[in-house]
Write a structure and sequence with these properties.
about 240 residues, alpha/beta, 6-stranded mixed sheet, 4-stranded antiparallel sheet, 10 strands, binds adenosine-5'-diphosphate, binds magnesium ion
């Protein structure tokens, strides 16, 4: 579904990704972890075409992803993205947040988009909040709206970049529960997260990054019980 082959990226002279290769099958849930500044967000952004890369190749199925490519806008709708800070449109209602791209990008009718939005709001337990604005919701509720918004586009892959890092601790689980359900339904998911409980429950694979490189990628059982690198061992000691 997603394949990176020897991807390198520079911000000016600073190399943020070093020869990264990883391959993700349909239905797999892959957790990316590693210290702050190790290149996790950069990697996710290059996969979604939000950041250019200079070397290597990234494929979404048979399509090559490049930030400058002509059909990126269409490709981007096939790949849902959820960020740490929700990134909802503050001046739109929750319902409008979920319908706008369906109408403007996918060309769905207002009634079709509304029906889809209501189904997904129900799914994340927020059907009663459709007419509110994001600012009236808690962080956990806003992040669930962001997930529902991404799902409205019928993505084939979902990318999450630290979706619970900005949340108060008591709201983390309501977001993880939505993600766990999605994983169990077979969604292909790439998740940057330090929630190792989530990784233990649903990850098929854990990828550990350090200083722009993919240091190891293992079955979750192996990663937690016998990490191969010293850096991964140090990292796990700190966060577990
Ligand atoms: P992570 O998500 O693992 O914390 P990032 O991908 O955000 O790491 O960042 C990796 C490295 O690239 C960091 O050293 C960061 O300072 C640098 N970096 C990230 N974004 C930019 C940017 N837009 N311009 C310059 N350097 C950047
Ligand atoms: Mg990051």
């Amino acid at each position: 579904m997603i394949e990176l082959k020897n991807v390198s990226k520079w911000y000016g002279k600073f190399q943020a990704l070093k020869n990264c290769s990883v391959s993700i099958q349909k239905g797999e849930v892959v957790v990316f972890c590693g210290p702050s500044g190790s290149g996790k967000s950069t990697l996710i952004k290059t996969i979604n075409g939000l950041e250019p890369y200079q070397e290597g190749e990234i494929y979404f199925k048979t399509h090559q992803i490049s930030a400058n490519g002509g059909d990126m806008n269409l490709l981007r709708t096939r790949i849902g993205m959820v960020f740490q800070h929700f990134e909802l449109f503050p001046h739109l209602t929750v319902l409008e947040n979920l319908t706008i791209a369906q109408e403007k990008v996918l060309g769905r009718s207002k009634s079709e988009a509304t029906e889809k939005a209501q189904t997904l709001l129900k799914r994340v337990g927020l059907q009663a909040h459709a007419e509110k604005h994001p600012g009236q919701l808690s962080g956990g509720q806003q992040q669930r709206v962001a997930i529902a918004r991404a799902l409205c586009m019928d993505p084939e892959v979902m990318l999450f970049d630290e979706p619970t890092s900005a949340l108060d601790p008591e709201m983390v689980n309501e977001v993880l529960d939505v993600m766990i359900e999605l994983a169990r339904e077979g969604m292909t998911m790439l998740c940057v997260t330090h929630e190792m409980g989530f990784a233990r429950q649903v990850a098929d694979k854990v990828v550990f990054m350090d200083a722009g490189a993919i240091v190891e990628q293992s079955d979750k059982k192996d990663f937690f019980t016998q990490p191969k690198s010293e850096r991964a061992r140090d990292f796990l000691e700190k966060i577990l």
